[in-house]
Amino acid sequence: MDNDEMKRLNFLLEIYVDVNVDKDFSVLSKKTDPFFIVNISGQLIYVNEVCEELLQCSRNDLVKMKLSNLFIPSMLNDTQTFFIDKQREQLLNFDSKISMRPGNIIDVNVTTFPILFNNEVVGSYVVLKDITLIKRERQLLSEKQAAAGQLAAGIAHEIRNPITAIKGFLQLLMGEYKGETTYFEIVESEINRVEMILKELMVLAKPTKIKYQELDLRLLLDKVLTLMESQTLLNDIEVIKNFHALEVMIVGDENQLKQVFINYIKNAIEAMPNGGKVIIEGICLNESAHIRIIDQGSGMPLETLKRINEPFFTTKEHGTGLGMLVSNEIIEEHRGKINIISNTEGTCIEVILPALLTTT
Length: 360
What we know:
By secondary structure, the chain is α+β, with helices and mostly antiparallel strands. The chain has helices at residues 3-20, 25-31, 49-55, 59-62, 67-70, 132-176, 182-205, 217-234, 254-270, 302-306, 323-333; strands at 35-39, 44-47, 91-101, 104-117, 120-130, 213-216, 237-242, 249-252, 276-285, 288-294, 337-343, 346-354. A hairpin with a 2-residue loop joins strand 4 and strand 5.
C-alpha cells in the first residue's frame, strides 16, 4: 500500500471518528470497556477515558503511540501494525499482554473488529479487558491442581499393586469355591469400583495426550447417545435431541470429548431417579458450538455449584468426586468453556467449543 492510499484511508478514518465517536466522547468514556481505535498503520488515533485509566497514560500520549509501543512483539504480525494470525478480521476474546514500561505487564483480553467506512476497512476498534487478577487466580488454581495431581499419583501407585494382588487371589478362590458366591461378587464389585477410582486419579495426575483431529460434532453426540441408550431405557429417561441443524466441525480428541458428554448425560440421568426428560440442544453461535444438556431434576444448591470442580467433592453415595474436575480440564484443553445453571426445576450444563470455520 503506497503512502497516498494510506493517507486517504487515514483521512476517511478521521472523518468516521469525528462523525461517530468524538461527539459522544464524554458518554463513551464512562460507560464502556477500555478501547482505542487504530488506523491501517497501527497508529492509535482515539482512546477512551477508561483505557487511559487502565494503561495509566494520558490520552495525548497514547495517540502518539502505535500497537508496537503497547503490546509485546510476539503478539503482533510481521509488520507490527496488527495482531498476529489475522489481518483486520474480527478477533474475539484472545489473551495478550501489554508492556508499556519495563517490569509493568498488564494481562488483557482483547477483542478487535474492523471499522468500515464507505465499504472500505479504514481501521479497527480494539477493546480491552483487564484480566490480571483472573490470571493470578488461574495460576493459583493450576498450582493447587498440580499438587492434587501429585497426591493422586502417589495414592494410585500405592493402592494399585495390592489391589491387583487381591483381585487375582479372589478370582482363584471364586474358581475353587462351590458354594454361595454372593459375597465374592460383592467384593469383586467393590474392587472394580476401586480400580475405576484409580483410573480417574491417574487421569487427574497424568492427563492423556490429546489426539487432535477434525470432528463432526453432531455425529459425535449421536455416538454418545447410542452408548447411553441402555442407561436411558433402564432409568425411564426420554432423550429429546434438538441438534439436527448443528452442522459444524470442531477440532479435538474424540475419546476425551465422548468422556465429557457421557459424564454430563450420566449426571443428568442420576438427577432424575424417577425418570424424566433429558434435552440435548446444539447450535452454532459467534464462531462457537454451544451444546446444552438439560435435565428435570431437583437442581443443585449454590454451595454445591461453588464446589463442583473441587477434587474429591461429591454429593453421590458412590461418587469419586473427580468426574466434573476431569471433564472441566478436558474442555479447557480444547479451549472451551462450561456454564452451569441450576434451580429447583433442573440443571443446564452448557459446553462451548470453538467451531472450525470453513472457507468457501
